[in-house]
Specification:
By secondary structure, this protein is of the alpha+beta class. It has a domain at 2-260: Distorted Sandwich (Beta-galactosidase, Chain A, domain 5). The protein contains 15 helices and 38 strands. The strands form 11 sheets. Strands 9, 10, 11, 12, 14, 15, 16, 19 and 20 form a 9-stranded antiparallel β-sheet that branches. A hairpin with a 5-residue loop joins strand 9 and strand 10. Helix 7 (385-400) packs antiparallel against helix 8 (403-424), helix 7 packs across helix 9 and helix 8 crosses helix 9 (467-486). It starts with a strand and ends with a strand.
């Protein structure tokens, strides 16, 4: 690369530095999500996603996070369609498929053309690139002339900048390059690491008359009842390589390829059908969201945590999402385990909160990570990713009996166990403490800075031992003991079993608060119980760490009016001094949190309580656009608000919100696989009163494939095996 004050030459191509654009973020408008009044829509496939308004536009200078993103970079910060200088009047807009958008607009009253006589159809698909096709139809009885303009621009902002983080320096913006031979228009940026980022727009099917100041101008003469159209595709490149798989050139090919990809995905998943049309819509929405949230990275697939802010690899989120959806397709868990093991901690690095054997919290690919401004390369500040990885490996084995894979992963498992013993456990409990000054203060799933708080409102000091982290550690040791036994290491199996038993005994002694008959959220640095009433102990039901005498107290306390809003369980009691129903973790309601608790209640036999959560979240889903559960919503009481109140910056779609629907289904059906013993247990299934039948096809359990039907008969739910390929024994128990 050759670089001067005003020119940059990279591999023979010369770019002129754009001195009109500020390379210092502090000199311009800060990237914050202060303006979220306009409704957003999402289109995504692999690691490329578009967030636009319902017109399909990314308004220039928007502060709501709208844009075209890939690898934690906003490659497009402006995409505006104008007809004769006006914004088309929106009639309808849908992104039902998740990877396509269809937007129908018309003209207003302008330039002598009667309003509502010109149809503007805007269609988008993401598959390797953003492909858009715009069709214009004249419904007048006379010919008309129209000028359509499409404006493009990019700030190449890092996702952390978009979320509000300020930077001391940025790279250099380069002037756009027009190549008439290839009908392309390129926006470019030379980063502080010396990498070239490019947004490349390729025009096809009616080329623009000219390009002026980052705007493509089209001139059309339309006869009565005639249609004309134009297309373009927008590719994202880093170091002259596409950030996602190479895409088809034309819009129709991209649509066909995206549909074929989704069909292939469906073929490999279990299929669920019920007699409730609305619940079917909810299941289908979750299935589609899990598809579009898949990212490919380093030869594996994983589920990105959520769009827009967390569309990357998160250890905790990807593992919980994979566990929630094991009944759909176990390969997602396998890929996730492999990928996370590949990036397992290797050394002590305080900057990244890394230690040998630790499973990552978050991996980012944007410029701020690559330049060392943030520690996410990857960042390891999570106390629970490591035991969750071990739980995931055991869960995978219970569904597949794939001992060969377990053997392959066993060195990583032993390293993870050693991390817990050597670095994680202090004074008998799994704790966290931040080392990195750019890391997270709180390192459980409630990771906002004010989420671990005493009853008097003071923030807890670290090291902190969260109750659910002890539950995960207990389940990890218990289940890995079973894996060790399957691998022939009886000595290790007994050791892990004993350690799990000892942890369970200590936990039920030290975390239980007799004065409120409930479990502490955590122990602080002084081993003082954090006695705030929270949803965290509900996760302990899922892991089985409670003794029987404590389970009923937890179940009853969770459904007290200060915790149960009518729409679900709050993260923090309404009676707490820190309660705020509009906060991220201190009174809001999270579907995945509720799903985990519902599954835990079911495992302990609290069927009525479990199904109460199931019904509540289903009722939330049917109030949402596209029947999509959001990451979280506000914790206002149902008798005050007739519909759930939106949390303004929630991710949607979001992985473990989508996965929670299948977790809730498992609460009803209670499938308990034991494929190493060639058995599938179905224990006392029970459908709620709004559901009469459930059919599951293509359910893979070990090497067998099952079709099952569940239906209500009076107060009982009956299960029938409709078809079985393989020799799995189905044990229906009540």
């Amino acid at each position: 690369m050759e670089e001067t004050i005003d020119r940059v030459t990279i591999q023979g191509k010369t770019y002129i530095v754009d001195i009109k654009s500020s390379p210092i973020i502090g000199e311009g408008k800060p990237f914050v999500f202060e303006d979220l009044r306009e409704e957003r829509q999402v289109v995504k496939h692999d690691d490329l996603f578009l967030i636009s308004n319902r017109n399909g536009d990314i308004p220039a200078n928007n502060t709501g996070g709208l844009g075209l993103y890939s690898q934690d970079v906003r490659y497009l910060s402006c995409l505006e369609l104008r007809v004769n200088g006006h914004i088309p009047t929106l009639l309808s807009s849908t992104t039902e498929s998740g990877f396509t958008a269809s937007i129908l607009s018309c003209n207003g009253q302008f330039d002598g053309i009667p309003q509502q006589t010109v149809r503007i159809q805007r269609e988008s698909v993401i598959f390797g690139a953003l492909h858009e096709r715009v069709s214009i139809t004249n419904y007048n009885s006379f010919p008309i002339k129209l000028t359509l303009a499409v404006s493009f621009d990019s700030d190449f902002a890092d996702m952390f900048e978009v979320r509000g983080m300020r930077r001391e320096r940025r790279g250099r913006y380069l002037e756009p390059v027009i190549d008439e031979k290839t009908a392309t228009f390129t926006l470019a940026y030379l980063g502080v690491t010396g990498e070239l980022l490019e947004t490349r727009i390729h025009f096809s099917e009616n080329l623009p008359a000219h390009i002026e100041d980052r705007t493509a101008i089209y001139q059309f003469h339309l006869d009565p009842h005639s249609t004309q159209r134009f297309s373009y595709s927008i590719s994202t490149l880093r170091a002259e390589k596409p950030t996602v798989a190479i895409s088809p050139v034309y819009y129709e090919h991209a649509v066909a390829s995206a549909n074929a990809s989704f069909s292939d995905y469906l073929e490999r998943c279990a299929r669920v059908e019920t007699d409730n049309r609305l619940f079917n819509r909810t299941l289908d929405r979750s299935l589609r969201d899990l598809f579009i949230l898949r990212n490919s990275f380093d030869g594996e697939n994983y589920v990105a945590a959520g769009v827009p802010w967390f569309a990357s690899l998160f250890g905790r989120d990807s593992l919980i999402s994979s566990m929630q959806t094991m009944m759909l397709n176990s390969k997602l868990m396998r890929d996730t385990l492999v990928l996370l093991a590949r990036y397992q901690g290797q050394r002590v690095d305080p900057w990244r909160d890394e230690e040998p054997g630790k499973i990552l919290h978050e991996l980012r690919l944007g410029e701020m990570a690559r330049s060392g401004e943030i520690p996410h390369t990857p960042y390891y500040g999570s106390v629970d990713s490591t035991p969750l990885w071990l739980m995931g490996l055991a869960r995978y084995y219970s569904w597949t009996a794939d001992l060969e894979f377990v053997q392959k992963m066993w060195p990583a498992a032993l390293s993870a166990i050693e991390w817990m013993d050597r670095y994680g456990f202090q004074d008998g409990y799994l704790v966290y403490h931040r080392s990195s000054d750019k890391g997270l203060l709180n390192q459980g799933w409630k990771d906002s800075g004010d989420s671990v708080i005493h009853r008097d409102g003071t923030l807890a000091d670290s090291p902190i031992a969260l109750c659910e982290a002890q539950g995960y550690a207990y389940a990890a040791k218990l289940r890995c003991g079973e894996l060790a036994r399957a691998l022939g290491d009886e000595r290790l199996a007994r050791k892990l079993q004993q350690e799990a038993d000892d942890l369970k005994e200590r936990f039920n002694r030290d975390f239980w608060l007799d004065d409120i008959d409930y479990c502490a959220m955590a122990l602080d640095a002084n081993k003082r119980a954090i006695a705030s009433v929270t949803s965290n102990p509900g996760h302990c039901l899922w892991t089985g760490i409670f003794t029987p005498e404590h389970t009923r107290s937890v179940a009853e306390r969770l459904f007290a009016p200060d915790m149960y809003s009518g729409w679900g369980l709050r993260t923090l009691s309404q009676q707490s001094i820190a309660f705020n129903p509009m906060s991220y973790h201190n009174g809001s309601i999270w579907p995945h949190d509720n799903g985990i608790i519902a599954r835990g209640l079911r495992l302990y036999g609290f069927i009525t309580e479990s199904l109460r959560i199931v019904s509540s979240l289903f009722e939330v889903a049917i109030t949402q656009p596209y029947f999509r559960l959001p990451e979280l919503f506000c914790g206002f009481a149902r008798d005050v608000q007739e519909v759930p109140v939106q949390y303004p910056v929630a991710c949607s779609p979001q992985a473990w919100a989508a996965g929670s629907i299948y977790h809730l289904l498992m609460c009803m059906l209670n499938l308990v696989p034991d494929t190493p013993q060639n058995r599938l247990h179905i224990i006392d299934p029970q459908l709620p009163d709004w559901l009469n039948s459930v059919t599951i096809q293509n359910l893979h359990v070990g090497s067998s494939v099952l079709n099952l039907k569940f239906f209500r008969s009076g107060v009982r739910t009956i299960c029938e095996v409709m078809e079985k390929r393989g020799n799995i024994r189905v044990m229906i128990e009540s």
